[in-house]
Amino acid sequence: MQVALKIWRYDSSTGNRALKEYEIDAPEEATLLDCLDIVKDKVDGSLAYRKSCRMMICGSCGMRMNGAAVLACKVRMYDIAQAGEIPTISAMGNLPIVRDLVVDMEPFWEKFKAMKPYLQPGYDRPEDGKEYRIPQERMNAIHKEALCINCGCCVSECNAMESDPEFLGPQALAKGMRFVGDPRDDATVERLEDYSGQHGIWECTRCYFCTERCPKGVDPREAIAKLGAEAIKEGVDRDMGAKHAKWFIRSTETTGWLRETELVPKTQGVVSSVKQMKFAMKLITHNKAGLSFPPHVARDVGEARGLHKLVQDQDRQGYLGHVQGEHALAKLAHGYQPGRDPYGPGSFPKPYLPGEEPTREPEGGA
Amino acid sequence: MRAAIAAHDAGADVVMISKLHPTRSHSGAAEGGINAALGNAAEDSPESHAFDTVKGSDYLGDQDSIEIFTREAPGDIYQLENWGAFFSRDEDGRLAQRPFGAAGSPRTIFAADITGHVLIQVLYEQVCKRDIKVYEEFFAWQLVVDDGRCQGVVCWDLLNGGLKTVGGKAVVLATGGAGRQYRATTNAYACTGDGTAMALRAGLPLKDMEFMQFHPTTLYPSGVLITEGCRGEGGFLINKDGERFMKRYAPNALELASRDVVSRSEQTEIDEGRGVHGSVMLDLRHLGAERIIERLPGSRENAQTFAGVDPIYEPIPVRPGAHYHMGGIETDSDGATELTGLYAAGECACVSVHGANRLGGNSLMETITFGRRSGTAAAEWALTQAAVNVTEAVEHDAKRELKQLLDRETGERPWKIRDELGETMLENFGVFRREEKMVRQEHVIQELRERYRNVHVEDKGDVFNSDLTQAIELGNMLDTAWCMVQAGVARKESRGAHARPHDYPTRDDANFLKHSISRWVDGKPELSYKEVRMGKWEPEERKY
């Protein structure tokens, strides 16, 4: 098939960027990575990009296609080429470009290392010198985080990082969750303190781009939410983000609705709120801030309180309540259609052992 | 990484050099698991593991090394688990173990089907914890040999350009395999036998180079790996009629016979016209959605992405593909090579644990156990030595050679030579081997090497010049491929992965129960032989 690509080239010696178009002939099963290989082999040997496993596990070939981060080895080109589209390929975002599609991953790994990304087991070692005993359900709860291949696609897309390059970012925080959620790790509180700083958990803007673009289903945003829940459960809540979230809980628990007027002082503290009095007065004059006392209580507040009690009774505060093991695995079930018969009409013949009768006439295969 | 950690813990000052970032290494693509006789799922012992390994090796493995290997494996597994490896669990919360090919007991510890990925992560975590310096994206090119010992490595700095020489009292090579010599392979683009070729050119002996394992389940058409764990979990191999043909080749073990046996059976089915698009089918449908999703999600994702097939509803088209090189740099059981100060571990080394055929799940274990042993041994040696002295002449020579390559303004692009090598190796030195085809392949390789002398690197720049490194990699593949084919022609028997059904269909212990040794002498490989270190197990007929 004929494939056309536009590639943003970057010459590191001159600092020049240029969008160049390439047209190649590729086999029908070709991926974006295969197409780049063909360009490099046959058209321009100076095209620079990273690659290795070509099976979505090494994390080398993160780049952008039409502005969205992808793993080049995961993108099949057939439909794109058939539709006559000419996708634009460029380097990942939020990281300095070294050359063409190669970015400098150093800032990425610095943040990874800032998470203390290794098990801190404390003194509680297995007595028999063998393995820790851990139920599979506890491992399932961090299964998605363990899938991360450090490709950088989430970092490339992170809106919070774009405004604050020091934000720890989705990949590092997902790695952090992988240890916070590991029953063998004994440094949960220290970690949550570390991760709750100015550039930590609460700086995420919840845009979900990381989750959307992650090629492995890691769900970094969900990992950050799990960290937040666990931080509040462990009482690590000095950050304004945590206080903000806590007020949502407290407010809905007491009156069944969100009392926004109190949100600012509860989040920022009284002193800081006083400075915003001018703004508050304007809100009041426009009837945007309720000042009724005692505050209005929602009619069905009992339901909200019952819900809170249920969470507590079932001990579902923290990350384990946020996501159960089955939930983590459900993501892996993409495309599964319960009820569809794998041996139905048109399917591949059913297996049989030599000497047995074939159960059904073969239909020529899949 | 395991060697670096061990050397660091033994008190040495360590740097790691890698042409990729360490987590990008192809060990991460290993899926199914890692073997150690923990006995969690059924009764098991290191002796039983050793026997299965010896038998699997078709009696070409060195039995003293194998016994060390199986004895130390359980401790290494517990260590990895205690470091935080994300392994799957059984009902009691212990490490789960699944059955694998040619194993007498369910012995394979796993993490769903991302075991290699999990190990890479835990090792890199430990590297970070120890703050071990890593020269990332340094392409190792030549060994520095001076005064009869190895004193460092000359590298090309990919990110910044330029040659960088890293001196060291001891060097451990852990550069992996060379599956890219074949068109159909599970191996990453990075698997080009760089360390093996460096050692070869430094005059070191390579052992058992003719033994290339063909994995029975590589996905059609892309060649990526579908784990043996699929069969470990109960998957069937069927031909175009749905027949579980393995019953005819390995009546007891069926799909879980050793890899060489399964690959040959598949190839026979395909050659005799019972395949589908040059493949057979791996059928998981009867396992059910839940088990596939929990235990084999990566294989399902690969099948969906690269073949458009969902294994819950359809069988997966698979065929044998080049997977693992049993041969490599000859080492003792501490990873030491013939050259003082040089060690090797993992796929680039030949200890030899795998002999003529490796068992699934033994390669990850080998990288860990012998990685640790070689790292410790290298550190112990280094700590007794005075500083190294790398003369400027070394880098100077390398620079001149590099300049020659970069200054060439015309010539042939590497891809054509690379593709022809891949195609002909598969055709002439694949699952089944014929004398005349192997001899022809020796000529093909020599002709390709001639053409390679005139290879043209288009990119002349310093920054991320992968055009240059890919050209050097091709040279590495050509040299090691020559050793393989030469040793293959000379081994006039069928043993393990070296199958000659047309002229020498059986094993010949009288003449060939010995290791092939390849050395580079005067610009070509020279072959000799060495005794196999036997132990308690005498060769017997191999049946599954």
Structural class by sheet pairing and helices of chain A: alpha+beta
CATH class of the largest domain in chain B: Alpha Beta
Distance between the termini of chain A: 23 Å
Beta strand count of chain B: 19
- What is the level 1 CATH name of the largest domain in chain A? Mainly Alpha
Total tally of structural domains of chain A? 3
CATH H level, superfamily name of the largest domain in chain B? FAD/NAD(P)-binding domain
CATH architecture of the largest domain in chain B: 3-Layer(bba) Sandwich
Rounded Rg of chain A: 26 Å
Largest interface: A-B, 82 and 90 residues
Tally of DSSP helical segments of chain A: 18
Radius of gyration of chain B: 22 Å
Record the strand order, biggest sheet of chain A.
Answer: 2-1-5-3-4
**Overall 3D shape of chain A:** globular
Question: Segments of chain B where pLDDT lies below 50 for 5+ residues?
Answer: none
Provide the succession of SSEs of chain A.
EEHEEHEEEHHHHHHHHHHHHHHHH
Total separate domains of chain B = 2
Give the gist of this structure:
The complex is a heterodimer of chains A (366) and B (544). With 366 residues, chain A is an alpha+beta fold. Chain A contains 18 helices and 7 strands.
